[in-house]
Amino acid sequence: MNQPAATREPLFEPAFVRALEAVTLAGRRIPSGRAAGQWRSRTSGSSVEFSDYRTYAPGDEYRRIDWNAYARLERLFVRLYRAEEDLALSVVLDASASMSWGRPSKLRLAGQLAGALTFIALQSGDRVNLATCRGGAIAQRLAGLRGEGAAFTAWRLLEQLDGEGDTDLNAALSMCAGHLRGAGMSVVISDLFSPSGYQHGIDALLGRRQDVLLVHVLARDELQPPADLLGEWRLTDTEPAAPLEATITPGVVRAYRRLLQTFIAEANEFCRRRGITYLQVASDVSVTEIVLRTFRTVGVVV
């Protein structure tokens, strides 16, 4: 006899979904009657408005380089312009094995954030592309979602996610960038534990004229190692790697904390140089707190 499929916990409580109905992505102007979406994006055209500068990234158009700034500073910057167009939101979710760590897991919060942003965009009339990645490839992809009803398709996928495999964010994000057509907004949600790095993948998204939001999710135990960690341990990586015999001492914990803070600071600085919004969040913080407060504070939603 066939066994019934295991039920998964819904992404959201109904009250949170009702709260999302009053939220929109920042930079949008909602016409009366919630007609076709309008987005203030980085598109150059016949009717544009200068916005800002950011550091040149591979793939940027040479004609947007400010050579006067280069003559003064000997660094390459590109000019950013804003124009009105429909928003295409792309959400890329790291679904590798390391994302399954934490209580609740990093993947659980990542799925909730992806589901919330997808719903906010769809109920405002925008197009959404949703992709999960593991290894150096796209694991699952929902392209061209439109209409509020499409949110349930996205939520079903996100509710069934399991963290599996290793991580190559450079390759996976570059692959996602290859599917993009036209300017838009890309949200990357990951713990950034990618041996090959993530920077080239982010640059590939920027080269496709994307406004990028990087949400860096870490488990509470990763941010604050528990007191009972001290002692002799056999460490097994969640992603393919040989086990390691280790003695955890207070000095080892201090060194780990320094390395982690350096890792976070480097990600923050990388994003700052490129005009990317960077958020580091803990997996035990509620999705309500992040979406309705933190995202509002940094100007992701209004």
How would you describe what is shown here?
It is a single chain. The protein is an alpha/beta fold and 302 residues long. It has one domain (25-294): von Willebrand factor, type A domain (Rossmann fold, 3-Layer(aba) Sandwich), CATH 3.40.50.410. It is built from 9 helices and 11 strands. The protein has helices spanning 14-20, 67-73, 106-122, 150-159, 169-178, 199-206, 220-223, 250-274, 287-297, and strands at residues 39-41, 49-55, 77-85, 88-94, 127-134, 137-145, 184-190, 210-218, 231-235, 244-248, 277-282. The strands form 3 sheets. The protein has a 6-stranded mixed β-sheet with strand order 6-5-4-7-8-11, sandwiched between helices. The chain has a 3-stranded antiparallel β-sheet with strand order 1-3-2. Strand 4 (88-94), helix 3 (106-122) and strand 5 (127-134) form a beta-alpha-beta unit. The termini are far apart. 35% of the residues are buried. Mean pLDDT is 85; it is low at 1-5 and 28-47.
Q: Which ranges are low-confidence, i.e. pLDDT below 50, for 5 or more consecutive residues?
A: 1-5, 28-47
According to CATH, the homologous superfamily is: von Willebrand factor, type A domain
The CATH architecture is 3-Layer(aba) Sandwich
- The outline comes out as globular
Count of discrete domains: 1
**C-alpha Rg, in Å?**
20 Å
Instruction: State the CATH topology.
Output: Rossmann fold
Task: Determine the number of helices (DSSP H or I, runs of at least 4 residues).
Answer: 9
Fraction of helical residues:
25-40%
Termini distance? Answer: 51 Å
Q: So what's the CATH class?
A: Alpha Beta
* Main β-sheet description: 6 strands, mixed
Number of strands: 11
Mean pLDDT: 85
Residue fraction in strands: 15-25%
| Strand order of the biggest β-sheet | 6-5-4-7-8-11
Give the topology string: H per helix, E per strand: HEEHEEHEEHHEHEHEEHEH
Class computed from helices, strands and strand pairing: alpha/beta
